[in-house]
Amino acid sequence: MSPIKLIVKTKSEKYPIIIGRNLISNLSQILKKNSISFKKCLLVFDKNVPNRYVTQISRSLKRFEVYKFIYNANEKNKNQKNVNKILNLLLQKNFSRDDSLISIGGGITGDVASFAASLFKRGLKFVNIPTTLLSQVDSSVGGKTGINTSQGKNLIGSFYQPKIVISDVDVLKSLPFREVVCGYAEIVKHALIANKKFYNFLDKNIDDVLKLKSPTIEKSIYESCKVKKSIVEKDEKEKNLRKILNFGHTFAHAYEASLNFSKKLNHGEAVILGMKSAFEFSKNKKLITHKEFDSAIKHLNNYHFPVSIKNYFTIKKINQIISFMIRDKKNNSKNIKLMLIKKIGGPIIEKEISDVTAKLFLKKKLIN
Ligand SMILES: NC(=O)c1ccc[n+]([C@@H]2O[C@H](COP(=O)([O-])OP(=O)(O)OC[C@H]3O[C@@H](n4cnc5c(N)ncnc54)[C@H](O)[C@@H]3O)[C@@H](O)[C@H]2O)c1
Question: pLDDT band for position 310 (50/70/90)?
C-alpha cells in the first residue's frame, strides 16, 4: 500500500500529513519530494522511542548536519526548563530560521518541541514524526503547542503549524497496548462527532485497529486526521467550532484530575469513560435515540476498555469531580458546559448545566 497524503490548509500554513509504512527510513526523500530543505536539523526525540527508529532516521538524514536532544517525555518534564534547553542548543549550534527542528515522539514531545520551534528566532521549520497512536491521530494535527506549569496542564503555548507530519505506522509496534487504547479513544471520538460512516467502519473493524493491522490502521489514522483537519481549518485558533473536539473531555479531565493523574486511569481510558458519561447524559435528557445510544455504549464497552466510573470512584468523590468540571476552560461561570451528541456523526451541541444537575447525574451513576 502506498503512503496516503492529506493536506492541511490553515490561514498560516499549508502542509502535508503522510501516513504509511516504512517512512522513517526514507525521510530524506520524503522531505525532498515535499520541497522541505535545510542545512542543519535538531532531532528532539523521546528517550522511550526504540533506538532502532532513531538510527533509521539518523541514517536517512546523513546528508544534513544533525544534532540530537534526548528528552525524557512525561507530563512533569513538559516544562519551560526543557524548552530552554532546546533553545540553548539551537543557539549554541548557530541554527538559523531556515534550519529545522524534528520531533520524534508522542504528544508530549511534539508539544514541547513545536513550542520551542515557534519561539526560536520567531519560528524555525518544524517537522513532526509522531510515534504514538494518539499523536498520529490527534496532537500532530492543528498546530497547538504547549507546556505545563504548576498551575495546570498546557497553560503556556502557541499556535504553530509544522512544515510536514510523517506518521509511520511501523513505529507504533513498540507501543504498550494501553497507549494504543489512548489513541483509539480519540479516533472513535472523531468518528462519533463528525463521521457516521467512519464510526460504522470502526464498529466493524475495532479488533484490527487495536491490533494495528494494515491497511485498517492507516485508514483509521487518515479518517481521524481528516475530521480534525476539517475542524481546525475552519477554526485554527480555537475560537468556537474547535470546542466540539472536547466531546467527553469535561468528564474525562475531571476523572483524571480527581485521581491525581494516577496511572490507574490514563488519559485515553478517562476519555472513554467521559464519552460514556456524555452519552448517558444525552439519553437522560432525551437528546439521542435509544438505538444510537445502545450502539455507542456497546462500542465503548469493548472488553479492552475501562468498564465504569464505579471502579474508580465512590460517592464521596462527587464534590471533587464536580469542582474540576466547573474549573474546565470552557466555563466562565459556576455552571458546567458539556459538549453533547444528538446523533452519531453529529450534530454536537453545547449544553450548560448547573453543578446540582451534574451532582445528581453522577450520584445516580455511582449508586446504580
Ligand atoms: N497539541 C495538541 O493538539 C494535543 C492534542 C491532544 C493531546 N496533546 C498532548 O499530548 C500529550 C499526550 O500524548 P501521548 O499520548 O502521545 O503521550 P506521550 O508523549 O507521553 O507518549 C506516551 C508514552 O509512550 C512512549 N512512547 C512514545 N512513542 C513510543 C514508541 N514508538 N514506542 C514505545 N513507547 C513510545 C512515551 O515515552 C510515553 O511513555 C499530552 O501532554 C497532551 O496534553 C496535545
Answer: very high
Provide the residue count of the chain: 368
| Ligand 1 center–CA 290 separation, angstroms | 35
* Nearest ligand 1 atom to alpha carbon 75: 41
pLDDT tens profile 209-225: 999 999 999 999 999 99
Q: Exposed, middle or buried, 110 (CB in 10 Å: 0-12/13-18/19+)?
A: buried
- List the domain range (segments joined by +) for residue 347: 247-367
Q: What residue's CA is closest to ligand 1, atom 13?
A: 107
**Is the full-model pTM beyond 0.90?**
yes
Distance of CA 336 to the CA centre of its chain: 23
Say which CATH number the domain at 280 has.
1.20.1090.10
Domain check: are 359 and 272 in the same one? yes
Rounded distance, CA 218 to CA 221, Å? 5
User: Do the domain assignments include residue 228?
Assistant: no
Number of domains into which the chain is organized: 2
Instruction: Tell me the average pLDDT across 231-259.
Output: 90
How far is it, in rounded angstroms, from Cα 201 to Cα 59? 38
Last residue of a domain, one of 174, 194, 227: 174
Residue 153 Cα: closest atom of ligand 1? 43
Task: Tell whether 9 and 127 lie within a shared domain.
Answer: yes
State the cell numbers at 195: 463521521
Q: Which of 158, 174, 190 is the last residue of a domain?
A: 174
Going by alpha carbons, the residue nearest to atom 12 of ligand 1 is: 107
How confident is the model over 270-308, as pLDDT tens digits?
Answer: 999 999 999 999 999 999 999 999 999 999 999 999 999
Question: Are 22 and 146 contained in the same domain?
Answer: yes
Phi, psi of 74 (to 5 degrees): -155, 165
Same structural domain for residues 25 and 133? yes
Instruction: Identify the pLDDT of residue 59.
Output: 96
